[in-house]
TrEMBL record:
Record protein name field: DNA-binding response regulator
GO molecular function, one term: DNA-binding transcription factor activity
UniProt KW keywords: DNA-binding, Phosphoprotein, Transcription, Transcription regulation
Residue stretches making up the Response regulatory domain: 3-120
Lineage of source species: Bacteria, Bacillati, Bacillota, Bacilli, Bacillales
Origin species: Anaerobacillus alkalidiazotrophicus
GO biological process: phosphorelay signal transduction system
Record-linked Gene3D superfamilies: 3.40.50.2300, Homeodomain-like
InterPro entries according to UniProt: CheY-like_superfamily, Homeodomain-like_sf, HTH_AraC, HTH_AraC-typ_CS, NreC/VraR/RcsB-like_REC, Sig_transdc_resp-reg_receiver, Tscrpt_reg_AraC-type_HTH
Modified residues (4-aspartylphosphate): 55
Domain HTH araC/xylS-type residues, every copy: 137-235
Superkingdom, taxonomy of origin: Bacteria
Length: 240
């Protein structure tokens, strides 16, 4: 049984969408409807919703704010946006939040049903979660393989074809660590490995790990390890 939320300010629009969905999917679907962005969030929190269909205009919270809150909690949540507003900024904002389905009113029933069918039938939630896990794994592989680069969030997002906002959210959700923390820890682990080779100058290690300012590398290393790179090297050498 698929569960869908329709969030729209207009009662007539909600009723038309409900009838369209119930006619198409009959007993295979449960439809909730609301005019409130806040209530849409509550419905998703409490009912394991497969798909949210929303307009940008809502009571209490607008569509963008509503989507941000939902995606922070459930990055995999399927969302279709439909609106009268053909605004590039709004469309781009939704895309950055991980919403690819952005339809313009007046809605064409066949087009809407095709998009809904794709979202809730061809790719159920568990499959979407699997894809997210796979995406995060590929991001981690990219980080580990390119540890010598200056791995900023925007750089990795561009290389792995995902928005910076979405990458940040799904990465924290899946790994329990934020992106910057993970990258820093991996760089410091590599630095410790290189520091054990006393023939490699510390400044070279800094550049090797994508730190263009050796002083910044020292600052980061000390924050993580409680000692400077040279102190770590001396300590390790003393133990050898």
């Amino acid at each position: 049984m698929q569960k869908v939320v329709i969030a729209d300010l207009e009662p007539i629009q909600r009723k038309c969408l409900r009838l369209l969905l119930e006619e198409r999917f009959q007993k295979k679907i449960i439809v909730f409807e609301t005019e409130s962005g806040r209530e849409a969030i509550q419905l998703i929190d409490n009912n394991n919703i497969d798909l949210l269909i929303l307009d940008t205009r809502l009571v209490e919270l607008d569509g963008i704010t509503c989507t941000k809150i939902i995606k922070e909690k459930k990055p995999w949540q399927k969302i279709i946006v439909y609106t009268m507003t053909n605004d590039h900024y709004i469309r781009e904002t939704f895309q950055k939040l991980g919403v690819s389905q952005y339809l313009l009113k007046p809605l064409r029933p066949k087009l809407l049903l095709a998009n809904i069918n794709k979202e809730i039938c061809d790719e159920p939630i568990h499959e979407n979660k699997r894809k997210i896990k796979s995406k995060v794994a590929s991001i981690i592989d990219f980080i580990d393989s390119n540890i010598h680069e200056d791995l900023t969030l925007s750089y990795v997002a561009g290389k792995t074809e995902i928005s910076s906002y979405y990458l940040s959210k799904v990465f924290k959700k899946e790994t329990g660590k934020n992106f910057v923390t993970y990258v820093t820890e991996r760089k410091i682990e590599k630095a410790k490995e290189l520091l054990r080779n006393v023939e490699i100058p510390i400044i070279n290690i800094s550049f090797e790990l994508g730190y263009t300012e050796p002083s910044y590398f020292t600052k980061v290393f000390k924050k993580v390890e409680g000692m400077t790179p040279s102190q770590y090297r001396n300590k390790h050498t003393a133990w050898s």
